Amino acid sequence: HYFMWPPGADTYINSDLIGGWGFLTGVGLVFAGMRKYMPIKANLVLLVFASTFWGFETFMELMHSIIFYDPGRMLALFFEGLGYLLLTFLMIRESPTQKRSDIERKE
Question: In angstroms, rounded to a whole number, what is the distance separating the alpha carbons of residues 60 and 79?
Answer without folding.
Answer: 12
